[in-house]
Amino acid sequence: MRRRLLPALLALLLALTTASAATAQTALQLRWELVADSQADFTLTNRDAKPLPATGWAIYFSALHSARDGSVGAGFAIQDVMADLHRIVPGAGFAGLAPGATIKISYVTEPLLNRSFAPAGPYIVFDAAKDVGVPLTDYVAAPFERSQHVVTPEAQFALDAEATDIPAGELPPVFPTPLQVTKGTGELRLTAMPQVTASAPLANEAAFAAEYLRPYFRAGGKGGAATLQLDVGPVEGQSSLEAYELVVDPTAGVRIVGVSPAGVFYGLQSLRGLLPAPAPRGGLALPALRVVDAPRFGYRGFMLDVGRNFHPKAAVLRTLDLLGRYKLNVFHMHLTDDEGWRVEIAGLPELTTVGARRGHTLDSKQFLQPAFGSGAQVGRAYGSGFFSHADYVEIVRYAAARHIEVIPEIEMPGHARAAVKSMEARADRQYALSDPDDRSVYTSVQGYPDNVMNPALESTYRFIERVVGDLVAMHREAGAPLRHIHMGGDEVPAGVWVGSPAVQTYMQAHGITNVDDLWFVFYGRVEQILKAQGVTLSGWEEIAVRKTTRDGRRTNIPNPDFASRGWRAYVWNNVPGWGAEDLAYRLANGGYDVVLSPVTNYYFDLAWNPNTEETGLDWGGYGDLRRPFQFIPFDYYRNARVDRAGNPLDPTVFVGKDRLTDYGRAHILGIQGNLWSETIGGDGRLDYMLAPKLFGLAERAWAPDPDWAREADTARANALYREAWSRLVNVVGKRELPRLDREVPNLNYRIPTPGLKAEGGVVHCSIELPGFTLRYTTDGSDPTVRSPVVVGPIPFRGTIRVAAFTTTGRKGHTVLLARPPQMP
């Protein structure tokens, strides 16, 4: 009897301890403030009736940067737990915190760019219940400003001056830019729903057309004489399977011919782009024209990282709608990483019960530790979550209906902590990814010491076979057979495997003398697993390179062993000054199929600019609409104008770098934008980082090489570039974004920040994307939808505040100019 009572008593004591700890969440107030670029303060206030003890507790939080050694004051220490998780620990100099008392904990960190770098998700843990984390709900990270290296309102005004205003009636009618547009005479007027005619293979496209045309006509109205005819057939002069011809004839109606159903779908997207806003009385008018079009690249991709922070199915489906609308045809799903495994796999339930959940933990045996501010509570949105079998099948099927190929990514052998810890939680070692006797010491770039699969274990390959087999089955169920899997391959840290007995045994048995060579063993085995399923291997650039030494420096060269195997290499590293500026071209010249996804132009998680109101990272520079638009795929050196910090780039950085050969051009498959999610959780951040950058990607992936990229004369090329840039910003601001406001509810895209310039006693205003309404105040308040509209120069009195508003009344960032006291 006593044996039965003892566990119950312990459980009661734990519950009482937890309840006591829970009281602290409302009793402690935490504030964070950046005092200078590198100086920060935590302010802790005890709102409880009892003192906070001098010892026996720690406050955990997530932050991209840690405290510098020896910089923490007030008798505290800030310790690095793992990766971006840190904790504040009281030291000998802290005597406790009396009721109502406040203490300031100052520390020095790295310079912080924006609010993405502020501490997030704080919680307290008491030594009496070390496995219980209690959220500090009374927490605020104060907004902060930077004194240097920002885009001022005056600088933004100068940037905006690069574009000219183009009347809406003079804008190109189709986006992305097509091969040929011939304008006809007159217009086609539709007063009733046109009759959609299509053969059986085009039933999907016919249904899509009817869906977006329906809002233009009254319910119950009888069909008109006009028809929308959809056909599959040849398009004159075009060999691409995605080519189409669109004809709008005032008498015969609309006809779309595609070389394939995909071509018909893209023709329908171009027709959709011609539609005006629905009129109250119904009906519409379309200009007579003929469009002949085909994409420049067969691969036009976008990657969404759902591993670091989870994005639910609804967000994924809406993203797929946007990709299809702008003729992108690949959705790369980064499904796994150190911080999360996001897809259900039959027979491996631990991948989602452990690997898809985050919360406070001492050992990651039941779930993973917090990351990116996900906090102590298990199951919190964006930190936890996964796609069920049914969810994933639905996503693949939804994408296929929009002619989008879903490419799943399963990170390996590095970036695999979620998988490694999930398999350690199993009762058996059938699918083990780690050697329990491994004493290797390493730290990944992101700060993990235990995130790499072991290539010497047969159980590792059983795991990969199981995962790949289930993905293949789900794609087959969705009716879209899996053709490619992205197998990661990046950022395996130095020091891995050297302390693994299993690795040493394997190396001795196979005559391997260098652990680096296990990389090639691993990917050779992975390739065989994929081949058995009829799937081709893809990965980040590391799968295509071999490390060597040149002139005493470590460098990467194309690995000739794998060049002939049809592998795809996704190349991201092109940062000027880092030495790999030409890596994509060298790999393509060496025979690898290459997808261009350079960090300098197509990492959508980079902050728009260095201003603190933006979010995102800056390690590869900044990412605005100009970056994806400016990229010249076959000669990106030519238009690389600034370095990571935004300073003018020394062109000598490209001296001696390889250029793309004619043979190499044939191996450039296309372009991909990547949106990593370390700084992207809820609150519309996905939409904000995706659009309007997406328009630059869509234009460059679909449209022919622009004339400014081919022009030899620099002055003429610059003039042509400004004309093209003006067309883009006017199309996006005056037509595409208002259309999305009408047709995609609550899409939280980035609204441009106005530019301001004081001159002659007045303030001139500008906007990067024409078409937004600018409103202003002079009384110190923030502009609202009721504030005066900017219609010309504003008299410079007091402080001028200006913001841009969408057609739905949504507001962007406010900028201001304060009138100096000495001004007359």
Give a description of the structure.
- Strand 23 (545-550) and strand 24 (553-558) form a beta hairpin.
- Mean pLDDT is 93; it is low at 1-19 and 21-25.
- The chain contains 19 helices and 33 strands.
- Helix 3 packs parallel to helix 4.
- The strands form 8 sheets. The protein has an 8-stranded parallel β-barrel with strand order 16-17-20-21-22-25-26-27, surrounded by 4 helices. A 6-stranded mixed beta sheet has the order 10-15-13-14-12-11, covered by helices on one side.
- The protein has 824 residues and is an alpha/beta fold.
Distance between the termini: 91 Å
The biggest beta sheet, please?
Answer: 8 strands, parallel, barrel
Widest sheet: strand ordering: 16-17-20-21-22-25-26-27
Secondary-structure class: alpha/beta
Strand content: 15-25%
Report the count of strand segments: 33
Key terms for this structure?
eight-stranded parallel beta barrel; 19 helices; 824 residues; alpha/beta; disordered N terminus; 26% helix
Short recap of the structure:
With 824 residues, the protein is an alpha/beta fold. It starts with a helix and ends in a 6-residue tail after the last strand.
Strand and helix layout:
Elements: H1 2-27, E1 28-34, E2 39-46, E3 57-62, E4 76-82, E5 85-90, E6 102-108, E7 120-126, E8 134-135, E9 139-141, H2 153-160, E10 180-190, E11 195-198, H3 203-213, E12 227-232, E13 244-249, E14 253-258, H4 261-274, E15 284-293, E16 299-305, H5 313-325, E17 330-334, E18 336-337, E19 340-341, H6 350-353, H7 389-401, E20 405-412, H8 417-424, H9 458-478, E21 484-488, H10 501-510, H11 518-532, E22 536-540, E23 545-550, E24 553-558, E25 568-571, H12 583-589, E26 593-596, H13 599-602, H14 626-630, H15 662-665, E27 668-675, H16 685-690, H17 693-702, H18 707-710, H19 714-743, E28 755-759, E29 762-766, E30 773-777, E31 794-795, E32 799-805, E33 815-818
Parallel strand pairs: 1-9, 11-12, 12-14, 16-17, 16-27, 17-20, 20-21, 21-22, 22-25, 25-26, 26-27
Antiparallel strand pairs: 1-2, 2-6, 3-5, 3-7, 4-5, 7-8, 10-15, 13-14, 13-15, 18-19, 23-24, 28-29, 29-31, 30-32, 32-33
Helix pairs in contact: 3-4, 5-7, 7-9, 9-11
